[in-house]
Amino acid sequence: MLIYAHRGASADFPELTMAAYEGAVEQGADGFECDLRITKDEVPILWHNASMLERAGNRGLIAEMTYKEVSRAYPQVLTLDTFLDYAIANKKGVLLETKHPVFSGNRVEELLVTALHEKKALAKIAVSVMSFSWLAVEKMRRLDSTINTTFLMHKNTPWFQARFSSSAAIGPGMNELRAEPMIAKKIQSLGRSLNVWTVDKDADIHLCQKLGVDILITNKPAHAREVLGYP
């Protein structure tokens, strides 16, 4: 079971920053997870919420601000370009979550595919593009069917969306997996990989191991390795 750092080693460092990903390397993470949005001038950046309020105390919306405005308000912001360079340099796989719904529709997927090709990332590291949006995952298939995808599920996601997704992997939340462990077998019976988020508790880590989870996404990579007895 591989251990991926959720927004970096985000239990110990500000999420989605270089410090968080440097921390993830130090903590032995096999790969990185991140969230992607695009600015008004179409710069893909690592950001979770639609606004800057939670992380920067700024009420501005990412989609309505230029990259220069965002970086002025939050200097630690990472671009997709910088993030990919760091992942490639450290030979870390990446799980790239595109956030939806957004005003720009599927433009984030288009820019992401271009970036992956320009970096030749697909030949250098393991890459999977993720989304809770079924339509976004299917858009990725149309843009480049060679790029691995993960369809993310939350508690209200209809099972038929996972069943008929073109994704190579399915990503249920840990809360849902804990409540209904049989979800793992249902996903595996479809021939899909199992990428589970966000797993920090000891019992949940052990449960994921027992259920044959492929990628465990955690805020605490070092802790997960210790619980699993990894060197």
UniProtKB/TrEMBL annotation:
It comes from Candidatus Planktophila versatilis. It holds the Pfam family GDPD. SUPFAM superfamilies: PLC-like phosphodiesterases (SSF51695). This is Glycerophosphoryl diester phosphodiesterase. Residues 1-228 form the GP-PDE domain.
